[in-house]
Amino acid sequence: MDNIYIKYLIIIIAVLMVVCILIVVHDMNCVKVRKYVIPVAGLEKTWHFVFLSDLHNMSFGKNNSRLAARIKKLKPDAVLSGGDLYNSKPGAGYNNAVELIKKLCENFPVYMTNGNHETKTKLYPKDFDHQYEKYTEELKAAGAVYLVNDYIDIEDTNIRLTAYELDHGYFRHFIRKRLDTVQIENVVGRAAEGKINVLMAHHPIYLKNYAEWGASVVLSGHIHGGIVRIPWIYSRKKAERGEEKSGTGIRMRGIIAPMIWLFPIFDGGLFKRGNTTMILSRGLGTHSIPVRFFNPCELVEVVMEPVKQAH
C-alpha cells in the first residue's frame, strides 16, 4: 500500500510541475492589456495613452511586430515608455527595443525615459561599449522624445510630462535609500502651477515623495508585478489602492521584487496618495529572475478624463 501512495504522490507532483511550467510559458509570452480610466480635476481634455515599461529587450513577434500591432489597435494619442527596455548586461543588445520604438514612432508621438538599466549603462559607458549613447541616438533619430530629468508640455492639452531619473544607488538590492522631496525639485524643478503634472519615475516605492512634489499622475515600473503572484487575503483602505470600499479582500500579490524585497507593498496596479494617482506597470519582460507566474506580461492603457462638474 505504501508503494501505491508514493506512486500517486509522484504522479501528483509531476502533474503540478507540468502545470507550473505551462503557466510560466504562457505568462512569459502572453501580453495582457490593462486599462485605467483616471478622472483628473482641472484637466481640460481627455488624454489617452499607452504606457510600456520593463521590456528588457523581449520580442513579441519578429522585431516586436505583434506588440506594435497591439498598441496600434488601441489608437492612443501617445505612447509613453518608463524605462528598462533593455538589460544592463555587456553584449545583451537592444535591437528588439529599438525596433519596437521605431514602429511606434511611425504612428504616434513617443515619450521615453530611463529605468535603472539605462541609467547603469549611461553611468559606465566603457563597460557597455557606449550602448546608451548608441541606443538613445537611434531612438531620437526615429522621432522619439527622450526625456531625462526634463519635461515637455503636451500639445493641445494643459498637461506637463516630466521624467525623473533616480540615481543608480536607489535601486540597490536589499537596501531602501532615503529620498527627500527637495531632491526631486533640485533636479527637475517644481511641479508646474496651472498644469496637470504627469511624472514618469521608474521606482514606485517613493510615491510619497512624488505626491509631495505635486504629481497628479505617476507612471512607474521596475517591480515586474512581484514576479510570482499568489492569492492574498488583506485589509485595505480606500485611499491606498483606489478601491471602491474599505474592508478585507482577496487579490493577487507579488512575492518578490527585483531588489530582492519580499512581498513588496507596491507590486502592480493603481495606488493613491492624497490627490496623486500612481499607475504601476507589471512590465513586459524579465531579467535577473527569468520567470513570470500568474503574472502575464502587461501593456498599460490609460485614459485621463476631466472631472465632470456637478449641475
Considering the chains and any ligands shown, give keywords for the structure.
globular, 26% strand, alpha/beta, single chain, 311 residues, six-stranded mixed β-sheet, Purple Acid Phosphatase, chain A, domain 2
Characterise this structure.
The protein is of the alpha/beta class and about 300 residues long. It has a single domain (about 1-305), classed as Metallo-dependent phosphatases (Purple Acid Phosphatase, chain A, domain 2). About 30% of the residues lie in helices and about 25% in strands. It has eight helices and 14 strands. The strands form three sheets. Strands 1-14-2-3-4-5 form a six-stranded mixed β-sheet. A six-stranded mixed β-sheet has the order 6-7-8-9-13-12. Helix 3 links the parallel strand 3 and strand 4. Helix 2 (about 65-75) runs parallel beside helix 3 (about 95-105). The longest helix is centred in the N-terminal third of the chain and has 28 residues, at about 1-30. The radius of gyration is 20 Å and the shape is globular. The N and C termini lie far apart (about 75 Å). The model is unreliable at about 240-245 (pLDDT under 50).
SSE map:
Elements: H1 2-29, E1 31-40, E2 47-52, H2 65-74, E3 78-81, H3 95-105, E4 110-112, H4 116-123, H5 131-142, E5 145-146, E6 150-153, E7 159-164, H6 181-188, E8 196-201, H7 207-213, E9 217-220, E10 229-236, H8 238-241, E11 247-254, E12 269-273, E13 276-280, E14 297-306
Helix pairs in contact: 2-3, 3-5, 6-7
Oligomer: single chain
Relevant CATH superfamily: Metallo-dependent phosphatases
Helix content bin: 25-40%
Total DSSP helices:
8
Residue windows where pLDDT falls under 50 for at least 5 positions: 242-247
Radius of gyration: 20 Å
- What is the string of SSEs from the N terminus onward? HEEHEHEHHEEEHEHEEHEEEE
Number of domains as seen in the coordinates: 1
Using the 3D structure, state the CATH architecture. 4-Layer Sandwich
Structural class: alpha/beta
* Biggest pleated-sheet summary: 6 strands, mixed
CATH names the topology as Purple Acid Phosphatase, chain A, domain 2
* Beta strand count: 14
Cα end-to-end separation:
76 Å
**Order of adjacent strands in the largest pleated sheet:** 1-14-2-3-4-5
Per CATH, the class reads Alpha Beta
* Proportion of residues in β-strands: 25-35%
How confident overall, as mean pLDDT? 91
What is the molecular shape?
globular
